[in-house]
Specification:
mainly alpha
Length: 144
């Protein structure tokens, strides 16, 4: 190992001495460690560039997260709209089914009336008298 002479400002030397004491090593050993590790972490410009790149990437990711949150809000609003539309359509379908049931009931009534009129036309004198006195039998009564 070669010996060198080095001139250092007193405040820097005080700082080096304090660090050496903290690490429990001599001043010379501490200075050797500093010199050995000077390039361990790479060039300061490279580190700065890496930090800048990472910050830019972080900013980009923050923007993407904000955009995704906005999209989520829009999708949630669309879901609410679609759920309301689904409820409305379900109610309309139920109303249409009620109307169809009412129409089917009316069709059955008209068919029963036509059937009764047909029976009246086809009935003989005794049948017409029976229908006049006792009433016209319903469709269910004639099936039995």
């Amino acid at each position: 190992m070669e010996q060198i002479t080095l001139r250092i400002q007193s405040d820097v030397l005080d700082s080096i001495d304090s660090e050496a004491v903290e690490h429990g090593i001599s001043r010379s050993e501490h200075i050797r460690n500093i010199v050995k590790t000077r390039n361990k972490h790479g060039d300061a410009k490279q580190l700065r560039q890496r930090v800048d790149d990472l910050e830019a990437k972080r900013d980009q990711l923050v923007d993407e997260v904000e955009q995704l949150e906005k999209t989520i809000t829009e999708v949630e609003a669309e879901i609410e709209t679609l759920e309301a539309r689904n409820t409305d359509l379900t109610n309309q379908l139920a109303e249409a089914n009620r109307r169809i049931d009412a129409a089917n009931e009316l069709v059955r009534y008209v068919d029963d009336e036509r059937s009764a009129q047909q029976r009246w036309r086809e009935a003989g004198l005794f049948g017409k008298m029976k229908y006049t006195v006792l009433g016209m039998p319903t469709h269910d009564e004639t099936d039995n």
